Amino acid sequence: MNWETKVSTLLGIKYPIIQGGLAYLAYSELAAAVSNAGGLGQITAMSLDTPEDLRTEIKKVKELTNKPFGVNYAIGQHGRPFSDMLEVAIEEEVPVITMTGGNPAPIFEQLKGVNMKKLVLVAARRQAEKAEELGADAVMVVGQEGGGHLGRQDIGTMVLIPQVVDAVSIPVIASGGIGDGRGLMAALSLGAEGIEMGTRFIATKECVHAHQGYKDALIQGTENDTVVIKRSLGAPGRVISNEWSSKILELEAANSGYEGLKAYISGQANMSYIYDGKLDGGFAWAGQVMGLIKDEPTVAELFERMITEAEQIRSKWSK
Predict the structure, then answer these.
(1) Residue-wise over 107-131: b if at least 16 C-beta within 10 A, else e?
(2) Can you give the pLDDT at residue 60?
(3) Which terminal residue of the chain, N or C, has fewer Cβ atoms less than 10 Å from its own Cβ?
């Protein structure tokens, strides 16, 4: 079947499926595997230490695939400068840039006159409208089911996607709660032109940086095994429920503020879980879609399964 949509055409990919930025996890192995399977793989830029580290990862992806890929910029990471990191992507002629968190306006300013596709992750209709005004080629819209950072309003994907589709003229990519072919078809039926998945790609063979304990927690857990932290900081994010996240929620209830929370919500605390497998000694981002994750396939196997499932639905609808 033909899977061409406005997003697949825009990005030059076979299937309208995008891999999320995945802080500390989205590197060359996973990005290349997703691109080779027909989607858009991504590298996470701001989890790397230096611009040259990013350049190395970009070159690795180019060695592993000749398909389009992207670089994600999590611009809200405590004000860390991103200009030098963005310059590397420009120099290496990366075809797609995605932006998550913070104000994307400075990135658009730096990319003026640069031939790159620019995608912005948003969690509200007004944010999508602003991204379109800035010059985004498409918006990725995450509902409150998603893992990682979410919108301040608890609006689910089923309601949020049609709202944004009606509000902007650029293509909309649905994110949050999507992990199989049924989710892909649901997103398309809501008016989206593609999907972004994060949590589902962690539990794949090519996500080599994720500790097996993290993957097993995603496979064995349910949709009830996540909580939202950092609401008190105005930056809510969904994580796996454990002793560490319970402590964060206790501190938030006690109005501890950023100073009281920073040791618990740091990148180091995140890495203790996802790299070292300290399942109660740190935190790990995860969406409610973990309730649909039952195994750890290769990326190619995941794509084959999703497309087969989606094509069965399309065939059923056509009757």
Answers:
(1) bbeebeeeebbbbbbbbbbebbebb
(2) 98
(3) C
